[in-house]
Amino acid sequence: MEAKGRLCAEPGCDQPGEFRAPPLEGARGVGDGPAPYRWLCLDHVREFNAGYNFFKGMSTEEIHDAQRPFAGWERETRAFNASGGADRPPRWADFSDPLDAIQARFRDRMPVERKDGRPLSGADREALRTLELEVDADRMALRRRYSELVRKFHPDRNGGDRSYETALAKVIAAYQQLKGSPAFA
Question: Would you say the pTM of this structure is higher than 0.70?
Answer without folding.
Answer: no
